[in-house]
Design goal:
The protein is α/β, with parallel strands linked by helices and about 375 residues long. The protein has 2 domains: about 5-15 and about 180-225 and about 270-375, Rossmann fold, CATH 3.40.50; about 20-175, no CATH class. About 45% of the residues lie in helices and about 10% in strands. It contains 15 helices and 8 strands. A 6-stranded parallel β-sheet has the order 3-2-1-6-7-8. The protein has a two-stranded antiparallel sheet with strand order 4-5. Helix 5 (about 75-95) packs across helix 7 (about 125-140), helix 6 runs antiparallel to helix 7 and helix 13 packs across helix 14.
Length: about 375
């Protein structure tokens, strides 16, 4: 019998009826202030959670103030984090843009003129917001008494701290979501229904939640929460292990951006690489014949280049072993399928992708097409 490796993204939780989209989270955050709704208040009191520290989060403020200018990405928090981090890095490399040279400090009219000039540049909304916040903090924290570079360092550190608090708030929300049970009927409507003995699957979970584990009692040792997991009461971990950040671009280290990047957070939070053993070539002790077949099923994940390092490694691990394998990418609709193919081309290179699809090592199945999934699964 073939081994099954499941690679799950947020689309899985959504398919199970979980309200785990970034939009759901933002609506939750919006209802916390100035006073939380009753449905949230009971949960917060039960868990002794004070939300005051999250009230003025700079990322949530950005979304609230600028969502009309952000197009389709307004609810994609990771995209917003990336845009703000890059805007701060831009000003760290162009510090003079934030200061009037005569006064050696920013002021309202000066920043307004700067924002007018930024309109024609890429990432203009985030740059304009960063300039606005810099002016506020400059006056509040009296940065006129320190060097410009030090002011920008402190500015960056404040946004990093707000990223940490945003991650904490996300953990609070997802813990609230997990209090509601998921019906197995939801699972039966997906193409995953045809996987025999799914409880014996290995799982690489990009989600922070335990939805699949609770549905099918998959052992913890068979699951790797690659980006950490919710653990509000700190029963399993001493710290928040949730990785929430931006793509690792290139091999050069940018010390300003490192704290925002996923590879750095995975190291700091010690999420590890335990998933690599799922790709090992094991032996079936009962008859001494090597297991030579693995179905790697990606469900609910857009295969965004934000996670390219993990996907590249998964493909490398399969190519290093002498067994038959197939990556089965599920998609919600044709638009999602095209997006996944585009992302795979970015991650693997177009020639490699053509080779893998030609050899049927990579196939695509609609997420609710049970018959097609049954057809493509290796035995």
């Amino acid at each position: 019998m073939a081994d099954t490796i499941l690679i799950l993204g947020n689309g899985f939780d959504l398919a199970m009826g979980r309200k785990t989209s970034y939009k759901d989270f933002l609506e939750f955050a919006d209802k916390l202030f100035p006073k939380p709704d009753k449905e949230y208040k009971d949960f917060l009191e039960k868990n002794e959670i004070c939300t005051e520290k999250y009230k003025d989060n700079l990322y949530l403020r950005f979304l609230k103030d600028h969502k009309d200018n952000l197009g389709e990405n307004w609810s994609n928090l990771e995209m917003i984090i990336s845009q703000i981090a890059e805007a701060i890095d831009y000003f760290k490399s162009n510090t003079n843009l934030l200061y009037d040279n005569d006064l050696n400090e920013p002021y309202d009219l000066f920043i307004q003129k700067l924002q007018d000039r930024l309109v024609t540049e890429s990432n203009s909304v985030a740059k304009s917001y960063a300039a606005e916040i810099f002016l506020e903090l400059f006056d509040k924290l009296k940065w006129n008494n320190i060097e410009r570079d030090e002011a920008l360092n402190q500015f960056n550190n404040i946004f990093i701290k707000h990223l940490y608090s945003l991650t904490e708030l996300l953990e609070i929300y997802l813990t609230y979501v997990e209090e509601f049970k998921v019906s197995p009927d939801k699972f039966q409507q997906t193409a995953l229904k045809v996987i025999t003995e799914i409880q014996n699957s290995y799982v690489i979970n990009f989600n922070y939640t335990h939805t699949l584990n609770k549905l099918y009692d998959i052992p913890r040792q068979n699951t790797h929460f690659i980006h950490g997991e919710i653990d509000l009461k700190r029963q399993k971990h001493k710290i928040n292990t949730m990785v929430f950040g931006i793509e690792d671009k290139g091999n050069e280290i940018n010390k300003s951006l490192i704290p925002y990047q996923k590879f750095y957070q995975r190291i700091v939070k010690e999420t590890g690489n335990a998933y690599e053993r799922f790709f090992d070539q094991e032996s079936d002790i009962s008859n001494g014949i090597p297991r030579i077949v693995k179905n790697i099923i990606i469900f609910g994940h857009s295969v965004d280049p934000l996670d390219k390092e993990i996907f590249q490694n998964c493909f490398t691990l399969t190519s290093n072993n002498m067994y038959e394998y197939r990556f089965i990418f599920t998609y919600y609709n044709e638009s999602a399928k095209r997006s996944i193919i585009k992302n795979l081309a970015i991650i693997l290179g177009k020639n490699k992708l053509v080779e893998l699809t030609g050899n049927k090592n990579v196939v695509f199945v609609k997420s609710d097409d049970i018959d097609e999934m049954r057809e493509v699964l290796l035995d």
